[in-house]
Amino acid sequence: MTGWDLAVDFGTSFTTAATLAGGRAEVLEIDGSKYVPSLVCVDDDGTILTGRDAVNEAAMAPDRTERVPKRALVASEQVLLGERTVATVDLVAAVLARVAGEATRRFSGRPPGRVVLTHPARWQAGGIELRRLTEAAERAGLGEPDLVAEPVAAAHHYVRTGDAVPDGGMIGVYDFGGGTFDTAVLRRRRDGFEIAGSPGGDVALGGEDLDAAFMEILAEHAEALDPDRWNELWEAEGRVAERHRTLLRRDVTQAKEALSRLPAVNLWVAGYDDEIRVTRREYERAVEPLLARSVAELQDTVARAGTTPDGLVDVYLTGSTSRTPRISTLLADLLGHVPGMRDDPKAVVVLGALSTIPGSVSATQHVRLPPRRHDPGREPGHPPAEPTPPLTPVGFAVPTAATTPAADATKTVRRTASGPARTPRDEGLTVRAGRHHQQDSVPTPGPALDGDAAARFAREITAIAEAAGVSDLVNAVSPTVRAGDTAAAVRRPLVAAVEGVGVAIGSRHTPFPGLPPEVALQVLREGRAELGALGQALTRLDDLAERLAAL
Ligand SMILES: Nc1ncnc2c1ncn2[C@@H]1O[C@H](COP(=O)(O)OP(=O)(O)OP(=O)(O)O)[C@@H](O)[C@H]1O
Ligand SMILES: [Mg+2]
């Protein structure tokens, strides 16, 4: 039997692991997800819970929870969780042991041949942070792992999967994660990358700050509706109130992430009858100063490395916050071309870490980046960019094979026995208790979205999919209206269909392979004026999404 290798990216908010066996690298799924929350929670009997167990327990026992063990590792030797004092290396060891255990199980209990751990570039060899990380690995039974800086690992992934960076060429890495923002400039050497200048970033800037900005917007809307209820939500004591706040924070994070794909989201806030709508436009306005700060930080890092943005072969994006479309736009303005983002921006670190294993890097192909409208031309020695051929979507779920969408869409809008479809309002709305988010949300008895209106929306979506040349990638839209249905229930499949068409457009018409479809879609949106029929289809799609969200 052949051996296998393990790489772990222990992040501030999420940890990702990947295995390499028989030349095949795979991101590990734990608890059904590739992103294991890094949060840990100490049980009543002192057991350190990880993953989903920790998340569940944390909702009930915030005092026994360490939300950011990576920060705790840097800040102190021990933390007080509930009544217990726990060594921070043990918290980290618990997370590492969990992912290593899950990986080992997949290889029939055989231990990995090699273990690679990634770390922020600013953690220096011999420093306390790396010493503690190494100790945590040892306590987790991982022996003495190889240590690789996160941006170096990401760069290896990009090179292994196609980008050519000539010897001596410089690249930038922009890593916007959950708790921190990191920048680095790397110089290509024949056997890998070295860090040029000093890495930069901001340990006090992360996706959490974007959550906070979103919460501020929500607070403004909620206070405009009813300030007392909002205060009550935050001031009430007891476990129910605590739980409402925990769930709202989670909803806010999810809604913020959804704004990378949707023009608007609706949230239900405990105590309010109506959903509260937040649009991408107002969110982008709110986070602009934070994003601008991150871009300025990258510019400083580039300057410290003795070069300019034009002197970089490319800038690679990593960290899940980098999925925010506005980030690609801001960086494209700085660079004159769309920055490099391929595959899952979080997983590139751990996959790249595996590539740093000797013999596993094969940088052979050259993928050129597409020109932007004002592309001043790539640096000398680089060929002018050319558009890449359309890509068949792979690796994410797009609904399959349409039949005859327009006909289907009309047919499947069901009518009540008594004639024309009745509006939810006719039937009386049932407002459900509990928390809801976005498509799960409590209905607003707004303007009627009856069967006829739903069918019209469905036909419009189908027509847009056809105009954009993606109707073969999306299913027929079938809003079903039943007696007693709520407006939200009728809207749900339509919103999903709009999102599906967007994903299909992003993947089929992507400016270059590997770009996540939501980012590709944003790039296409930016250049829509020059995209003819496709540009018009995008405008129609966005307009329709806004109208739907407003209902
Ligand atoms: N589609 C998305 N759009 C915007 N933000 C997203 C998206 N998906 C996830 N995020 C955000 O990304 C953050 C997590 O990023 P990531 O997992 O890369 O961080 P990390 O590696 O744990 O942290 P760090 O790199 O700071 O140590 C969270 O704030 C999450 O809300
Ligand atoms: Mg990270």
TrEMBL record:
Biased amino acid composition, Basic and acidic residues: 372-381
Skewed-composition ranges (Low complexity): 393-410
Gene3D superfamilies: 3.30.420.40, Actin, Chain A, domain 4
InterPro entries named among the record's database cross-references: ATPase_NBD, Hsp_70_fam
Entries under Pfam families matching the protein: HSP70
Coiled coil: none
Compositional bias per record (Pro residues), positions renumbered to this chain: 382-392
Residues covered by region (Disordered): 362-451
Transmembrane segments annotated in the record for this chain: none
Keywords, alphabetical: ATP-binding, Chaperone, Nucleotide-binding
Name this protein carries in UniProt: Hsp70 family protein
